[in-house]
Amino acid sequence: MRPALKWMVFCLLFAILTLISQLGGLALIAALFFKRRMLVFLTAYALLSLSAIWIAPVVSNRVALPCFSDGPLKVQSWIYCALNRNYVSPEVKALLEDLADATEEAYPRTQTLVLDGNFPFLDGFPLIPHLSHDDGRKVDLAFYYRDASGYRRGSIRSPIGYFAFEDGPSNCPPKRLSLRWDLAALQPLWPRLEIEPNRTRFALAFLAADPRAGKILLEPHLKTRLGLASSKIRFQGCRAARHDDHIHLQL
Questions:
Q1: Tag placement on the chain: N or C end, fewer CB within 10 Å?
Q2: How far apart are CA 121 and CA 123, in angstroms?
Q3: Cα–Cα distance between 239 and 241 in angstroms, integer?
């Protein structure tokens, strides 16, 4: 491979790894100085990611949410943890823990699942594909789901908690250049689970009543369907991604 092409490939990989994990680009640079580059990359990435758990609270005031516990609060997928997307401010973590505990107390054995949080470092660093999630003060939550037998603890419709949209009316006109994806081809692939209304309504009402919560983004048809009236629960607008597959919370 020609040197110029190698440099272009390296720059592309660096950009991709940095955008999806923040620390992957640094691990790639470290691997350049060794022959067994894949092994060094994986080792360096693991060390950087583990170090962030202790460094981020000091440097950027962000803490990691639990990935492997089976308690009332858990990051939904190991993917978010592996890509360092499970960081929030201590205030957000405390609010999520209070939410999870209150929901479990009201509905025993309930598990609250967290989706995308933030990267461990640097305010303003984008968390693709979100328009925000860049300061530790935003986080996404999965809906609670049920099937014919009742509430399904820890279950979601899509593998990553996103893109399994709920049917409902929308006033947004169709546009080609928009983050408001419908992804119609994917919808038949998801399991036939329904939003569990009691837990989801309780969680949203809890967050809306808590003074620490500043804004909750949810599609209007779900707000109506769940009988919620708080002004904190808002429509995100037609330019942003749909919010009838998850809940967006920010301080």
A1: N
A2: 7
A3: 7
Helices (H), the chain: 3-21, 24-31, 37-59, 78-82, 90-106, 197-209, 220-225
- Rounded-to-integer distance, Cα 109 and Cα 72, Å: 7
Cα separation, 216 vs 232, whole angstroms: 6
How many Å apart are CA 203 and CA 111, to the nearest integer? 11
Q: Give exposure, 60-86, as e/b (b: 16+ Cβ within 10 Å).
A: bebbbbbbeeeebbbbbbeebbebbbb
In angstroms, the CA 205 to CA 217 distance is 13
- Beta pairing partners, 112: 73
**Pair type for strands 112-114 and 73-75:** parallel
- 3-state per-residue secondary structure call for 50-109: HHHHHHHHHHCCCEECCCCCCCCEEECCHHHHHCCCCEECHHHHHHHHHHHHHHHHHCCC
Distance of alpha carbon 37 from alpha carbon 205, whole angstroms: 50
Scanning the structure block, which residue is given the tokens 């769940």?
A: 226
In this prediction, residue 250 carries a pLDDT of 97
Amino acid 115 reads L
Strand partners, 140: 248
> What confidence score (pLDDT) does residue 1 get?
61
Residue spans of the chain under pLDDT 70: 1, 176-177
| pLDDT, tens only, 69-93 | 889 999 999 999 999 999 999 999 9
**Closest alpha carbon to 148 in 184, 192, 117, 105:** 192
